[in-house]
Write a structure and sequence with these properties.
With 182 residues, the protein is α+β, with helices and mostly antiparallel strands. It has three helices and six strands; from the N terminus they run E-H-E-E-H-E-H-E-E. Helix 1 packs antiparallel against helix 2. The radius of gyration is 31 Å and the shape is elongated.
Length: 182
């Protein structure tokens, strides 16, 4: 009885400054290699996305996810070698998935949903900008970001209490003598 071929994820981050034809060729080569030596389950082009941190001075990349089955380690080695050599590939990762791992989310719809959520948050920002357009000043913010009326002056941060002195060490005036002598 043969076991089912394991499932793999291949995530590629491609340089957006590379030619579109070259990026398309890399994606189609990876796809054809997977289809020839395995079973391609899905290919999601996630499009342009911001990187978590700059990679070779790039802040965005073209993301692609391939999910596939294969029982041939040669395919994995071939993909690894080809993608390492290609200068247009900023990063890639091949991950063997455990059985029962949930399906990857549809990032295209998640990206559109995030844009919609940002657009819904904009009316709150517009409400804050409305007083400024009407000639009023927007509500002022205190040191901790709390809102306060513009007529109320800003409070200075409270000073930390002075450390307690041991008994008997304080002078009658509560401070150093006016002439500076002890």
């Amino acid at each position: 009885m043969s076991a089912a071929a394991p499932t793999y994820d291949l995530v590629m981050l491609l340089d957006l400054q590379a030619d579109d034809a070259r990026r398309t060729k890399i994606v189609s080569d990876a796809r054809s290699a997977i289809e020839s030596e395995g079973e391609l389950l899905r290919h999601d082009g996630w499009g342009e996305r911001a990187l978590a941190y700059p990679i070779t001075r790039r802040s965005t990349a073209d993301y692609h996810l391939f999910q596939f089955h294969t029982s041939r380690p040669e395919l994995l080695r071939s993909l690894d070698r080809t993608l390492r050599i290609a200068d247009e590939v900023l990063r890639f990762r091949i991950i063997k998935l455990r059985p029962g791992v949930p399906e990857a989310p549809d990032m295209r719809s998640a990206h559109a949903g995030a844009r919609r959520a940002g657009a819904e948050a904009a009316p709150g920002t517009a409400a804050q900008a409305a007083p400024a357009q009407a000639g009023e000043s927007p509500p002022a913010r205190g040191p901790a970001g709390e809102s306060r009326p513009a007529s109320q002056p800003a409070r200075e941060p409270e000073q930390a209490a002075a450390p307690a002195e041991p008994e008997g060490s304080s002078q009658a005036g509560g401070g150093p003598p006016p002439n500076g002598s002890a």
